[in-house]
Amino acid sequence: xxxxxxxxxxxxxxxxxxxxxxxxxxxxxxxxxxxxxxxxxxxxxxxxxxxxxxxxxxxxxxxxxxxxxxxxxxxxxxxxxxxxxxxxxxxxxxxxxxxxxxxxxxxxxxxxxxxxxxxxxxxxxxxxxxxxxxxxxxxxxxxxxxxxxxxxxxxxxxxxxxxxxxxxxxxxxxxxxxxxxxxxxxxxxxxxxxxxxxxxxxxxxxxxxxxxxxxxxxxxxxxxxxxxxxxxxxxxxxxxxxxxxxxxxxxxxxxxxxxxxxxxxxxxxxxxxxxxxxxxxxxxxxxxxxxxxxxxxxxxxxxxxxxxxxxxxxxxxxxxxxxxxxxxxxxxxxxxxxxxxxxxxxxxxxxxx
Length: 353
Prior knowledge:
Layout: E1 6-11, H1 19-34, E2 37-41, H2 45-49, E3 53-55, H3 58-61, H4 85-95, E4 100-105, H5 107-118, E5 123-127, H6 143-164, E6 167-172, H7 179-188, E7 192-194, H8 202-214, E8 220-225, H9 259-271, E9 275-279, H10 291-309, E10 315-320, E11 323-328, H11 329-332, H12 341-348
Parallel strand pairs: 1-2, 1-4, 4-5, 6-8, 6-9, 7-8
Antiparallel strand pairs: 2-3, 10-11
């Protein structure tokens, strides 16, 4: 039997349904199969910087499988944006006696993990993002839950749109990739799907709505990803009105939101149809994960512990086909997985209502 280890674990970036399922699987596998001790760092990389950590026991995780959020807390702290950050991370891990750190997060969290790995820190990544835009894995946990939440919301919007003969614009998450918008749009049979990968012409959008109206379809639902842009603005970084005054997080990401409101105003102005907007925002991150995401997150957690004991440091667990494998962290961090537009053209476009 492999010698017991002292494993660290953290969750970073935006919260996501399924995080607790990963934590539970890591703790149960580490303690049950290997006799490991698991140390949880609070609030992502901030907890490592500040050495805010405590042991996670089996009783603490037994009932968290279906619980949303993360019992460890999270943040968008970037150690490489802090003075002496990387050295503070290494000192903190050494002080806690950590043999290997399991970092659960998206592009930014795993990007930090990659840099630390290149500096000799023993770290393994678990991919997490509801946007499903991480390379190296077929899908990330949280995505299917976000799609289901968006689909349910759009289904509800349809009945009120039909009652009032309105155009309803539903803005969903998707900073760089339109996976959520496309899947939810297909599942709910919307009139149009607007994604970051395909700049849209607002006049063409309005013409399609007018044509629907002429055909006796007096209500329409449009789903738009938060990162979608009209073609005229594609060369600009983002219209200021859509970027909350240019506010950025510690990784330099603009705070998005607002394209739905802008689009609804343009539609009403150009068509004369009453248009309303619903921005789902953080509703997509909250609540209990779907069965698919619980299972995938559990498989990731088990695989992460096994990989660490197999010496797979500097790597990331990933779903490829039916199997959980490990890939270099560099394949997941810093490489966006954009919406496959051939899929959009084949499945979404022909079914736009």
